[in-house]
Write a structure and sequence with these properties.
Chain A: Belongs to the PCNA family. The complex is a heterodimer of chains A (260) and B (249). Chain A is mainly beta and 260 residues long. Chain A has 4 helices and 18 strands. Chain A starts with a strand and ends in a 9-residue tail after the last strand. In chain B, helix 2 packs across helix 3. Classes of the chains: A mainly beta (260), B alpha+beta (249).
Chain lengths: 260, 249
């Protein structure tokens, strides 16, 4: 039997909103340690890796490891039927082919149940090695979303280049070019607004806007976003979900012109 | 190509003729000449547009997937960086389970592969390896009658009267219960012929098959071809040592 209860169902809603752009369906791997999800988008260019720790839930029980393949659009439909301050309980039997979402309103006067059919997904798991990144940038999540949105008006790809001085996002297209430079913040008064760069070596990489834009759908989950880059390695965009876990996106770089 | 098609059109009748009709239709499209024809053209043009629109509309509906795919010809794929671990992902637990299952299968199928009986001077028959065994591999089952302790005592007394009976009783504990496998009777099975050594290359292990305990011999180390298979009978009792002094070695 599997049961996970989260008082803030809105967190789960936000997670769902953050991944349903890239994935049509995904397998939720549940174990005693928590819920994990790893899936690539159809084009195999980006990957979503979600981890929700069991201790982050208000109640968590998982007698046997189980994998639940879910259609994310359907799941999203179900969560749209809930209010933000509802409590959600996700339940499944050990060998069940359905999962139940139960929403309880704050005052317990309304309880709704939604049962959803599970899918059998034959998904590829990728073995992601631990990497020491040349550059790790932490910045306000909202700022990152804004930059990506702004720059994607001008071109299809964004060049992220990180040096000692700061990080530069640039693009160019038919109408011209755009550059946004962020300097490391010197004062650490407001942690949420800080831009912090840890750099071993300068890195410049090019990524497709479209995916970065999808990643920023996770902005409501966290105040800060962390970008990790190394040469010839996919970019990691990480959002910490407070007290619950993290959501990471991996994005393969664009093929440079001189590579062809 | 087109010329060839027209040439065959004059030879063959109906099917290709319709094709040439269509072609003239399109010809009129690209080069309008008289108002009379314009009427006809606008009609057929609509039709052409319709047929053109349909295939265009389809990919639009799939935009989510196809759109990305076409764009990504200039993007690296994640699979270039990270290895795919499809369902080959095995936790140590599943590896262990698989091993247990293969062990059970070996016992069920009475496996006696890679073994040879050899007569040793002084100690009689023994078993040697006819192939390499890796550490932990199943070698052979110690097969005989599974009996309880009371039955074992009765048999023990009977065998004690017969000096040629040899030593084929193996006592073991399984799930906190004492059992005995009696392989005294000649059975053609190889397990009973494996000789004793306190420093043998095999270990005994019990496992449960269909709720009955079975005794198997497992390779303790890697065993080379031609090595004699030996295991510790474990019997150090004074009584046994009196009858079988070799148990001390």
């Amino acid at each position: 039997m599997f049961e996970a209860r989260l008082i803030n169902s809105v967190t789960f809603k936000k997670v769902l909103d953050a991944i349903k752009d890239l994935l049509n369906e995904a397998s939720f791997d549940c174990s005693e340690a928590g819920i994990q999800l790893q899936a690539m988008d159809n084009s195999h260019v980006s990957l979503v890796s979600l981890a929700l720790r069991s201790d982050g839930f208000d109640k968590y029980r998982c007698d046997r490891n189980l994998t639940m393949g879910m259609n994310l659009a359907s799941m999203s439909k179900i969560f749209r039927c809930s209010s933000n301050d509802d409590t959600v309980t996700i339940k499944a039997q050990d060998d069940a082919d359905t999962v139940t979402f139960m929403f309880e309103s704050k005052k317990q006067e309304k309880i709704s149940d939604y049962e959803m059919k599970l899918m059998n997904l034959d998904q590829e798991h990728l073995g992601i090695p631990d990497t020491d990144f040349s550059c790790v940038i932490r910045m306000p999540a909202g700022e990152f979303a804004r930059i990506v949105r702004d720059l994607s008006q001008f071109g299809e790809s964004i060049v992220i280049s990180c040096t000692k001085e700061g990080v530069k996002f640039s693009t160019s297209g038919d109408i011209g070019s755009a550059n946004v430079k962020l300097a490391q913040t010197s004062s650490f008064e407001k942690e949420e607004e800080a831009v912090i760069i840890e750099m071993q070596e300068p890195v410049t990489l090019t990524f497709a806007c479209q995916y970065l834009n999808s990643f920023t759908k996770a902005t409501p989950l966290a105040n800060q976003v962390q970008l990790s880059m190394s040469d010839n390695v996919p970019l990691v965009v990480e959002y910490q979900i407070p007290d619950l876990g993290h959501l990471r996106y991996y994005l393969a770089p664009k093929i440079e012109e001189d590579e062809n | 190509m087109v010329r060839g098609a027209v040439a065959t059109a004059s030879l063959v009748h109906t099917p290709v003729q319709t094709r040439t009709q269509k072609m003239t239709c399109q010809d009129t499209l690209s080069s309008p000449s008289t108002p009379h024809r314009i009427q006809l053209r606008s009609d057929s043009a609509n039709e052409v547009k319709k047929t053109l629109k349909q295939p265009v509309a389809k990919p639009k509906r799939k935009l989510n997937n196809n759109h990305i795919e076409t764009k990504n010809s200039d993007n690296h794929k994640l699979t270039e960086y990270f290895p795919v671990r499809r369902s080959v992902r095995k936790v140590s637990k599943t590896v262990l389970e698989e091993k247990q299952r293969s062990l059970e299968d070996a016992v069920r199928n009475d496996m006696e592969d890679g073994l040879k009986v050899k007569v040793f001077e002084g100690k009689g028959r023994g078993v040697v390896a006819a192939k390499k065994f890796q550490r932990g591999d199943f070698v052979v089952e110690y097969k005989g009658d599974l009996i309880d302790m009371t039955e074992a005592k009765i048999r023990e007394e009977k065998y004690a009267q017969d000096n040629n009976a040899g030593c084929y009783m193996y006592y073991f504990k399984h799930n906190n219960q004492q059992y005995c496998v009696d392989a005294t009777a000649e059975s053609g099975k190889l397990g009973r012929l494996v000789n004793h050594s306190r420093n043998g290359n095999l270990l005994t292990r019990t496992l449960s098959i269909d709720n009955k305990p079975r005794l198997v011999l497992i390779a303790k180390d890697s065993i080379e071809e031609g090595d004699e298979l030996l295991y510790d009978y474990g019997d150090r009792s004074k009584e046994s040592l009196k009858h079988h002094p070799w148990l001390a070695y």
